[in-house]
Amino acid sequence: RKEKLEKILARRGPDMQHTYIIHHNGFSISFLGTVLHLRGSSITCQPVVASSPHVTGDGDGDGGVDVFLWNGEVFDGLSIEENKSDTSAVFDQLQNACHNHDDDDDGGNDNNILHVLDKIEGPFAFIFWEQRRKRMR
Q1: pLDDT tens profile 35-56
Q2: What distances in angstroms separate CA 114 from CA 13, 31, 98, 105, 122, one per listed residue?
Q3: I need a surface site. Which of 13, 19, 70, 127 has the fewest CB within 10 A?
């Protein structure tokens, strides 16, 4: 089944395909990214995986990382360097929104994320695993 799904999805993103798996509460969560390269000087591997600030892992094999999958195009609203992909720019903004605030209040965190998303002009869909709160968005 997995191989069949990967083959079908490879047509959607023929330039790169990668899987990253995290373990949480006894479950394995598989993130499969396929990329059609449109912006930036090089292909941004998806899923994007980066250390989650202030998280060292919970012994469940997740390694303390945030994981991001992006399908979309940022036409305006976020400042994106000329040679940078919109995937990287949006992920950086979301990580900053999640981790650069003074309190641990979920409401403040959610508002920061909504503020980032509200600025994006263009079609998009995403999956964001926020390791600090062990939450899928």
Answers
A1: 877 777 778 888 999 887 655 5
A2: 27, 23, 11, 15, 15
A3: 19
Give the pLDDT confidence score for residue 121 in this predicted structure.
96
Residue 7 identity (one-letter amino acid): K
Output b/e per residue, 50-82; b: 16+ Cβ within 10 A: eebeebeeeeeebeebbbbbbbeebeeebebee
The yes-or-no verdict on residue 128 having pLDDT over 90 is yes
Answer whether 74's CB lies under 8 Å from 89's CB.
yes
Query: What is the structure's pLDDT at 106?
Result: 55
Contacts of 75 (CB under 8 A, 6+ apart): 121, 122
Return the sign of the alpha-carbon dihedral for residues 98, 100, 105, 108: negative
Distance (Å, whole) CA 79 – CA 82: 9
Residue with tokens 């949006």: 90
